[in-house]
Amino acid sequence: MSYASVIVLVILVAISGLLIRRAYRSGVDVGSAQAERRLADTLDKHASTVFGSGVSAQEAAHNLLDVMRSAVILTDGLGRTRYVSPLAERLDVVVDGHLESSEIRDMLNQVVVDGKVRDREIEMNMEAESGRITEREPVHLRARIGRIADIAVLGASDPDDMSTSGGADQLYAVFLEDISEQRNFERMRRDFVTNVSHELKTPAGAISLLAETVSDAADDPDAVRYFSGRISKESARLTELVQKLIALQKVQDDDGLSAVDSKPVDVLRVVREALDENKVQADAANIELRMYVGDDTVGVITTDGVADDAPTPSEGAAKVVVNGDADSIKTAVKNLVENAIHYSPKGTHVGVSVKQDDDDVRIRVIDQGIGIPAEAQSRIFERFYRVDPARSRATGGTGLGLSITKHIVQEAGGTISVWSRPGEGSTFTIRLPKAERSNTSKNQS
Fold it and tell me: I need a labelling partner for 95 at 20 to 30 A (CA). Which of 77, 181, 270, 279 fits?
């Protein structure tokens, strides 16, 4: 090889190396630019969302839907769901990935047509808590539906294409809020005002009418005595009603019974006092009152003053103690005994048993009365509800006693239930958590 050829070869190699180096640098620069553009695009996408920069919109949106107070469903215009929140799943409005409720679908169709956000209150019948297929209970829902985004449909350019017709290419949000409790409260408030007005009007009107009658019969001493007695009776009924309303307001106080006010309560003493305060009514109705403690099946017949001086079932027995307010718990037991007396035939007996186990204390009030029909047992703790209104008014009942009792028991952390059968009597059971020994001894010291 000649000297000139060598020089040419060296020059070619140098030029090739220079070109390769330049190409490498150009590739690096292009790659860096593309990476920077991708990063910028990503940051721009994050920054353009409502969640701000540095937040994954997909993750944030999904978690936001899960923590929302309302039930959320994301669906297209045909009712095919894309997301159903846990709350919405419990409402049973979506079946096999489709909106099942005809009312919600009707709302959705209207939104698809005109694009306007719509609100509506709807009522549905859902499976009851008992789980029985035959039992359904009404649920009130506040529904809100609106369009939130487009759905990209690949290859769809024809507006008449079925894949984009009927709102199939649009995403809609369905918000559902359960307002059943609010509606039930409003209904109870209306019923309460109506019932109070009626109950107060009845004795007040009777007193006014009887007073006029007494005035007209001023020359007839026997008539005056009779109508004066009726006035006294109606006046006592009115006074009792007002007192029961005050008591109901007290036990429904939002503040409740604070831990400071809660003290150890001797259940046996409270029950004896409640029986003692009902003794006059029981004697007048020729009904015997008995008290049972533990596994005792004979019972002790109450007498006047049993709470203070007579031998009692608590002697020689373990103390039965719960935490709460003694006067309130006595009122609860007294109301149950009073009802038992009113609804029991003459010559029968009303029993109150007290029994405790490792966890709670059970107070049962048992009568041999007329019983309560099964369909009425779920309502007897409602204010002013009466199984037999005529009998209740004849005995001076206000329809508030059981409602007051229920609130007192719940305030003390307990529960109340009823077993009854028409013609066989009723048994009301109060369960209260037993006081802890350490707390009891500390409070008593």
Answer: 181
